[in-house]
Write a structure and sequence with these properties.
- The complex is a heterodimer of chains A (about 170) and B (about 80).
- Chain A contains 7 helices and 5 strands; from the N terminus they run βαβααααβαβαβ.
- Chain A has about 170 residues and is an alpha/beta fold.
- Chain A has a 5-stranded parallel beta sheet with strand order 4-3-2-1-5, with helices on both faces.
- The radius of gyration of chain A is 18 Å and the shape is globular.
- Chain B has one domain: 2-Layer Sandwich (Translation Initiation Factor IF3), CATH 3.30.110.
- In chain B, strands 1-2-4-3 form a 4-stranded mixed beta sheet, covered by helices on one side.
- In chain B, β1, α1 (about 20-30) and β2 (about 35-40) form a beta-alpha-beta unit.
- Chain B is globular and about 30 Å long.
- Chain B starts with 7 loop residues before the first strand and ends with a strand.
- Classes of the chains: A alpha/beta (about 170), B alpha+beta (about 80).
């Protein structure tokens, strides 16, 4: 294809659930012969860490289904409605919710964030870390995977100005 | 579909979005122009996704079938 399309994504969230859209879209874009760049800023920065420890919480997110990844199909389809009063106060609840989501994803044949990130890199997706937020939050380059570029708003905007698709996630 | 002969087969059964697309792209990249890849998927979303992927990349879907929750695509490399 002569007219290469460009995708520009800002990844601003670092929870397990919101880690998916930027990596899914960027890897799919690369598979569709597009030039993709993901700019990681604020809470999206931890997605670049060598060792990912992503978590998810149902607290403050009433739309999040809570499903059990085991038992009969009917049991797995039950949506456990847990009030914030319990999920927000019970120690270890987020770890449990994270474990359940990871297990459900695995059972449904969804790739892990690590796998999708690796496929992005393999297919030439550019990762840019926001230098300013790194300093504010105390992230260090040595904690991040190789191949990351470090820059600011101008570098993102230069790419986005030419982009056919631009997303803030 | 008997007139289409695939030189490679890729089984994406059990995989979910976007894996079938990513694996297909990887496989196609290793093939010669004109060769046909047979791809099997169980992801119901892949029927529309493969068409979009094909429209975008120019690799043509020369045949497809659905049987018992399995989707089969024959993709010819451009």
């Amino acid at each position: 294809m002569s007219d290469t399309k460009k995708l520009a994504i800002i990844a601003s969230k670092g929870t397990l659930d919101w880690a998916y859209p930027p990596f899914i879209l960027a890897s799919a874009a690369a598979a569709m012969d597009m030039d993709a760049m993901v700019f990681f800023t604020f809470y999206g920065l931890p997605l670049l860490k060598k060792d990912l420890d992503l978590k998810v919480t149902p607290v403050g997110n009433p739309a999040m289904p809570m499903k059990m990844p085991f038992g009969s199909k009917d049991f797995q389809n039950v949506n456990w409605s847990i009030p914030n009063l319990i999920s927000g106060n019970m120690p270890g609840f987020d770890s449990m919710a994270t474990m359940l989501m990871k297990e459900t994803f695995k059972k449904k044949g969804v790739a892990t964030i690590e796998e999708l990130r690796e496929m992005c890199i393999e297919s030439g997706v550019r990762f840019v870390a926001c230098q300013m937020t790194m300093e504010v939050f105390g992230f260090e380059k040595k904690d991040f995977i190789d191949g990351v570029e470090y820059a600011g708003a101008a570098m993102y905007l230069e790419h986005a100005a030419e982009a056919d698709i631009s997303l803030f996630i | 579909m008997s007139e289409v002969t695939a030189s490679r087969t890729l089984d994406c059964s059990g995989m979910n979005c976007p894996l079938p697309i990513l694996k297909t792209k990887k496989e196609i990249d290793q093939m010669q122009s004109g060769e046909v890849l047979k791809m099997i998927s169980t992801d119901p979303g892949s029927a529309n996704d493969m068409t979009s992927w094909s429209n975008r990349t120019g690799n043509k879907i020369v045949g497809s079938s659905t049987e018992g929750g399995a989707y089969t695509f024959y993709i010819q490399k451009s």
